[in-house]
């Protein structure tokens, strides 16, 4: 509840600050762009595709086939898929300056970069047969993202590139859906060469985020607060533009930063304050009510399992309780980075996750990092991105530049 109130305070703060005599910083143009426009603005090549899932959802996927300096390299390149976390979209991979945005860094390193979005997020709100205002459209959680979205996206990339395997980069919830998908579908898992997990979320037993506290609210109260279909932090373009303007006022940077990142936190003095309006445009987003309820069930039960339908479990699963996800059966070689001060994916929860995963080939904890440092940390390149690039180069035997 606190973060809902904080969002309201932020917008109200903007209204009251209109008369402030202090000079505001000019808004970055990328704050008002979609993903394709941001990529073009930074002079990178962009391809945009619609991927159709087997249950009728259209997912927007962006491709950066090469960097700004290696357009003449026509040799097959390693394909790298980046998937964002909950309540955001893939613009987060290109929201920093090019030298500190993972999407651009990978492209300049000579890789074929793909950036996907989850159903229900800002750019994925289209279905073959359902309209956005129908309750049925929002009848999904992270389970469907794992079992329907990931196979559709990965198979599309392999078909388009002619590759046999991809590299998968999952942040937060998109690491969770990978655990589920790759353990439940071994054939899909074989199509992933390395799984890079950034701030992976598992049980959230030691979660200290406001999101975690909200999970203990009764489902009926969550529905009353969120609504019966979906939850959007900034439901209209008007509210989004208000927050963007608020976050472009330099004298309000600290307030904007605290509100934007309060659900997971970011290291002190580790964010580019001049880019806050861009982050504000793409961090707050949408997901389904069912997804929030599913995470609430995980936190309350302390188990990662399928959605609990209560009395309907017997008809749905042929048992009275939902089956557990058997992520320990995932065999994909996995690299994990975690934050020592992460309030979302806490160090204790990460330690337990590592004991469950069956094929962790490398693990590193960054002591001063919180949850959003993986996306927006000023030292993200030094702490994670360059290391990730080096690993792919070594595996694919690509000479270092």
How would you concisely characterize the structure shown here?
This protein is of the alpha/beta class. Helices cover 38% and strands 14% of the residues.
Q: Kindly state the percentage of residues in helix.
A: 25-40%
> Secondary-structure element order, as H and E?
HHEEEHEEHEHHEHHEHHHEHHEHEHH
Major β-sheet annotation: 9 strands, mixed
DSSP strand tally: 11
Quaternary status = single chain
**Low-confidence spans: pLDDT under 50, at least 5 residues?**
1-21
How much strand? 5-15%
Number of helices: 16
User: Which radius of gyration do the C-alpha atoms yield?
Assistant: 20 Å
**Broad structural category:** alpha/beta
Mean pLDDT: 89
Shape: globular
Kindly, what is the distance between the CA atoms of the first and last residues, rounded to a whole number of angstroms?
A: 48 Å
Q: What order do the helices and strands come in, and which of them pair?
A:
Elements: H1 2-17, H2 35-41, E1 47-52, E2 57-64, E3 79-83, H3 102-108, E4 112-116, E5 126-127, H4 142-161, E6 166-171, H5 173-184, H6 186-189, E7 192-198, H7 210-214, H8 219-226, E8 230-232, H9 237-247, H10 253-260, H11 276-282, E9 286-288, H12 289-301, H13 313-317, E10 334-339, H14 347-356, E11 360-366, H15 373-376, H16 380-395
Parallel strand pairs: 3-4, 3-6, 6-7, 7-10, 10-11
Antiparallel strand pairs: 1-2, 2-4, 2-5, 8-9
Helix pairs in contact: 1-9, 1-10, 4-5, 9-11
């Amino acid at each position: 509840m606190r973060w809902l109130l904080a969002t309201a305070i932020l917008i109200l703060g903007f209204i009251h600050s209109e008369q402030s005599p202090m000079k505001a910083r000019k808004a970055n143009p990328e704050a008002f762009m979609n993903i394709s426009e941001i990529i073009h603005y930074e002079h990178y090549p962009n391809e945009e595709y619609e991927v159709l899932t087997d249950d009728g959802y259209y997912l927007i996927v962006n491709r950066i086939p090469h960097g700004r300096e290696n357009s003449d390299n026509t040799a097959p390149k390693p394909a790298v898929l980046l998937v964002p976390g909950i309540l955001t979209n893939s613009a987060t991979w290109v929201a920093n300056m090019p030298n500190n945005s993972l999407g651009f860094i990978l492209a300049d390193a000579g890789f074929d970069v793909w950036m996907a979005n989850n159903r229900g997020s800002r750019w994925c709100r289209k279905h073959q047969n359902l309209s956005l205002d129908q309750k049925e459209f929002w009848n999904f959680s992270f389970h469907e993202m794992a079992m329907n979205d990931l196979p559709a996206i990965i198979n599309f990339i392999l078909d388009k590139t002619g590759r046999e395997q991809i590299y998968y980069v999952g942040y937060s919830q998109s690491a969770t859906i990978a655990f589920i998908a790759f353990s439940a579908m071994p054939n899909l898992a074989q199509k992933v060469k390395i799984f890079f997990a950034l701030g992976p979320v598992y049980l959230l037993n030691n979660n200290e985020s406001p999101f975690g506290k909200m999970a203990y609210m009764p489902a009926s109260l969550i529905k009353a607060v969120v609504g019966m279909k979906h939850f959007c932090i900034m439901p209209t373009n008007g509210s989004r533009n208000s927050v963007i303007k608020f976050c472009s006022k330099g004298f309000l940077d600290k307030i904007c930063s605290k509100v934007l990142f309060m659900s997971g936190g970011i290291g002190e003095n580790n964010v580019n304050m001049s880019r806050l309006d861009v982050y504000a445009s793409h961090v707050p987003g949408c997901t389904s009510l069912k997804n929030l309820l599913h995470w609430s069930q995980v936190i309350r039960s302390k188990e990662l399992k399928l959605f609990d339908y209560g009395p309907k479990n017997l008809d749905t699963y042929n048992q009275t309780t939902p089956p557990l996800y058997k992520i320990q059966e995932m065999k994909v070689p996995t690299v994990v980075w975690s934050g020592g001060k992460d309030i979302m994916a806490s160090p204790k929860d990460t330690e337990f996750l590592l004991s469950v995963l069956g094929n962790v080939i490398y693990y590193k904890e960054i002591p001063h990092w919180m949850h959003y440092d993986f996306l927006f940390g000023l030292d993200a390149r030094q702490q994670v991105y360059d290391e990730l690039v080096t690993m792919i180069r070594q595996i694919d035997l690509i000479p270092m530049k």
